[in-house]
Amino acid sequence: MKRKIVSNLLATLIGVAIAVLGMEVAVRAFVDDGKQFDLEMWKYALEVKGVSSDPLIGHYHRPNRQAFLMGVQFDTNSKGLRDREFSYEKPPGKLRIVMLGDSLTVGWGAKFEETFPKRIERLYADRGIPAEVINTGVGNYNTIQEVEYYVTEGYKYDPDIVVLNFFVNDAEPVPVAHPPSTILRICYSCIFVAGRIDSLFREIFAKKDWADYYLGLYGDDGEAKGWLNAKAYVAKLAAFTKAHGTKLLIANLPELHDVQHYRLQKITDLVHEAADENGVPFVDLLPYVQGVPSPELWVTPPDPHPNGLAHKLFAEGMYEALEKLSVDEPAEQHGVGLSLGTSR
Q1: How many Å apart are CA 292 and CA 313, to the nearest integer?
Q2: How many domains does one find in the chain?
């Protein structure tokens, strides 16, 4: 009897192992096409990200990483930026802009040269203005993390202008970062199945759709804790840049699910108010993409991150706002006068 129980248990374990192995092979061979959002974000965490010692930053890009994510090459430089190499010392005669942001700014799913920071750099070059636009974006960052990065590291680049790129989920709390477990480092099927279960539960049990979720981060009267914390860090960045003689621009990057019938204007208005309260110029990039059907702006149908076209339109709108900022004073330190008021 005992031998039969052991035999049945062993057979069950072997069956489970075969099923798990079969699922793992199937996911790797047939499901993982390089465009599965859950799997690609997991690879991003494994291959690029590290855990920061600063809890207000949480995670960061490890330096000199090379990865292929969401169908595009994703490499970091010696400082962990998805960009070419930059010295802290600003070259004489060059306009320098630092971009702060999350996965939209870093260019998730977009080729490096198609991201709006690099497009803006080329727009300056086309007008004969030598400029460096440094992309410090990191996926899953919020405003607190972006500002904390800037006041501890980003300011060392001595920029003439800082752009804080705001997205609707920036009122979420700073996520607690921790290294992936050993099993999650190798189990593609675990990530895939967990993602499908999460999607199913959201579809069956979630009371809020995507727009209601985002709006809930701010509260009915704009007094939700997450937004108040983010707003405080907007003020912190405004004070820091002012003390260092650096221009600051706040750009609203719209959520791209439905730009023709935008449901998140309340959030845009709150961010605009926060910019006004701190005397900071503000640009809303929604009008620059509203003439394009929403799906044509997405990386993939399940993933409404901005694709190359959306980045192009963002760059055009942001460049127009940057033109209105004068940087004559910082540029004169190098014996040249640069102005963003160049005619187009």
Answers
A1: 10
A2: 2
* C-alpha separations of 113 from 79, 119, 255 in Å: 19, 7, 22
Q: Are strands 59-61 and 49-51 parallel, antiparallel or unpaired?
A: antiparallel
Do 45 and 74 lie in a common domain? Answer: yes
User: How far is Cα 335 from Cα 326, in angstroms, rounded to an integer?
Assistant: 16
Distances, alpha carbon 48 to alpha carbons 59, 153, 185, 217, in Å: 10, 19, 13, 28
- 231-274 residue pLDDT tens: 999 999 999 999 999 999 999 999 999 999 999 999 999 999 99
In eight-state DSSP terms, residue 29 is I
Residue 64 shares a structural domain with residue 124 = yes
Provide φ and ψ at 169, rounded to 5°.
-90, 10
- What is the C-alpha separation between 321 and 310, in angstroms, rounded? 17
Under a CB-based contact definition with an 8 Å cutoff, are residues 256 and 297 in contact? Answer: yes
In a domain, 254, yes or no: yes
Domain of 25?
A: 1-31
Helix (H) or strand (E) holding 324: none
Whole-structure pTM value: 0.86
The C-alpha atoms of residue 97 and residue 318 are separated, in whole angstroms, by 12
CB proximity list for 55: less than 8 A, separation 6 or greater: 174
Q: Residue 113: is its pLDDT beyond 70?
A: yes
Shared-domain flag, residues 123 and 264: yes
Report the distance separating Cα 215 and Cα 28, nearest Å.
37
**Alpha carbon separation from 237 to 98, 155, 163, 190, 232 (Å, rounded):** 13, 11, 10, 40, 9
